[in-house]
Amino acid sequence: MTGGVRLAWICCGLLLLLSAVTLGSLLVGAAPVSPGAVLDLITGRGPSQGTDRTVILAIRVPRIAAALLAGGALAVAGAGFQALTRNPLAEPSILGVSGGAAFGVVLGQVSGLGQGIVEALGLTALGFAGALVAGIAVYLIAYTADGLPVHTLLLAGVIVGIFFSAAITVLISIVDTNRLGGVIHWLLGSVAPIPPASLAVFALATAAGVWLVLGQARALNLLALGEEGASELGVNALRVKRRIFAGAALLTGTVVAFVGPIGFVGLIVPQALRMLLGPDNRIIVPAALLAGGAFLLAADTLARTVVAPAELSVGVLTSFCGAPFFIWLLRSRVGRPTP
Amino acid sequence: MTALCEFQHVGFAYPAGAHGRPPFEIRDLSFALAPGEVLGLIGPNAAGKTTVIRLLSRVLEPSRGEVLLAGRSASRLGRAAIARQVAVVPQDVPQGFPYTVEQLVLMGRFPHAPGRFFESREDLEIAREAMALTGVEALAAEPLDRLSGGERQRVVLARALAQRPRLLVLDEPTAHLDLRYQAECVALLRRLHRDEGLGILLVSHDLNLAAEVSDRLLLMAAGSAVSVGTPEEVMQETVLEAVYGCRVVVDKHPATRKPTVNVVWPDGR
Q: Which of A83, B147, B148, B195 has a CA-to-CA distance to A205 between 20 and 30 Å?
């Protein structure tokens, strides 16, 4: 079976899973809407007004879209960081990159960036900038002549993360609490319905980030030979690394701007996929996009139903799953770096 | 006839004092490797053998002089263009390398279409041929870290052959091999050389191996060429003793009549 055929089968399977999760998420929620009514509304045959219409089309559908985008983006960012650092534990929140992005976004929120699409663009740009700064800082702290040792990298990520969360606390404490609105809830990571124009920004930035990572997927496989080995086979290692880093930082910054720093999705999803599908990044990256979306949507659906009508932050749920997974990975595989 | 590769007065120096190592440089190195020739590059540790490989594959750029590949300056060729001409066979793959034999061999096809996402059917056929040549087809689906040193050596060689290069650069090909695999490796190299017409640059500590398979030897010491010529011309007791700093006896191989070298072990008194 050639790679393309295998990828097509895997994507078909994951799309089925994604559809099932999406359907489930459409049907459940704090406000009871009958499956028939949901179907009518989705296919455009429902009433043109009413509570059901608002619940489904203005709340559940945009929220589902946001969760799918965020999950896919985080999983691809995680896959990119893991292959780049040849470290199975690399992930946006563990590397402190999410923290840097969150600082950028909070900075934008407290300084007041305007409304609607201007705000969406501004926050995305600031999130991206924060992610870049944090990523570069972690790299500079952890880099040695022999590469990026696993433990130093993790510690550098933790330190940079602590620094930025302290900086966020400073920002929050000097700002009038009335303007903070949902910042605390957002900081825990929570998916909220996003207006269409902002959703379009989210989707475009995610597409750009995925394109950057996916375009280097084959060269990224060769980097497992080491930089010199890859260079001898015609890979421009520096360019590959820069693009992957920029792509993963863009994905992280965008997700943080729209739904907050949700942790561990970028760890759980790509690692689980590698165990199931093998190490080939040309398979893992597209699979992570779909599986990450399905995973975060399932988590978000759970978060808004288990304690309904109240809500959990989805970030809390992913951390509950992610922390034990991280510990298990740390105990079992950290000794051997994998790309 | 244009040489496959030619070093013209190449100079190179590593940044001085990095990591506390003494500064090392290549000084005014010139040699050429003709199509279909086997050139053995020998010399003691720190002679600059690995640096020559890195300059040849453009992992490093010369600070003086030029490296020519088939008559064209390597510094004007892209990385992929170089990798289509020169295949470097490393000693091993990195620890924890997660891919299978077939996936690794297919990586050799990268320079032929770097923009392609998945390898083509033709790539797959070339990879299978390369695996057949080195006798590792049966291992295609095995992960690299389950193989023995000898098997891994043949797999990395298959990867280099999948590059369809004109020049094969072997970095200590027999370093991890026992006698039987060393013999198989030599037989394989001879067959490749004869059947595929490949030029071979053999970089080795093993002087007897180099003398056995090479048409010519290039003896390096401290970044410079000391002696170039046929194995008989280069393998002189006085020359080797001066370069290696120990007593040796040069003899002829009882079966092949090629020169062999034996160390006269100091007795400690």
A: A83
- One-character DSSP codes across B9-20: EEEEEPPTTGGG
Look at A229 and B80 and tell me if their CB atoms are within 8 Å: no
Q: Does domain B5-234 have CATH number 3.40.50.300?
A: yes
Complex ipTM over 0.90 = no
Closest chain A C-alpha to B234 CA, distance in angstroms: 30
pLDDT tens over chain B, length 269 residues: 688 899 999 999 877 555 555 667 888 999 999 988 999 999 988 888 889 999 999 888 899 999 999 989 998 999 999 999 999 998 888 877 889 999 999 999 999 999 899 999 999 999 999 999 888 999 999 999 889 888 888 899 999 999 999 999 999 887 777 788 788 888 888 888 888 788 999 999 889 889 988 999 999 988 889 999 999 898 888 888 888 888 888 888 888 888 888 888 888 66
Amino acid at A170: V
Q: Do B110 and A219 touch (CB under 8 A)?
A: yes
B93: alpha, beta or left? (left if phi > 0; alpha if psi -120 to 50): beta
Question: What are the domain boundaries of chain B?
Answer: 5-234
Residues of B in contact with A217 (CB under 8 A): 117
pTM: 0.88
> Contacts of residue B115 in chain A, CB cutoff 8 Å?
none
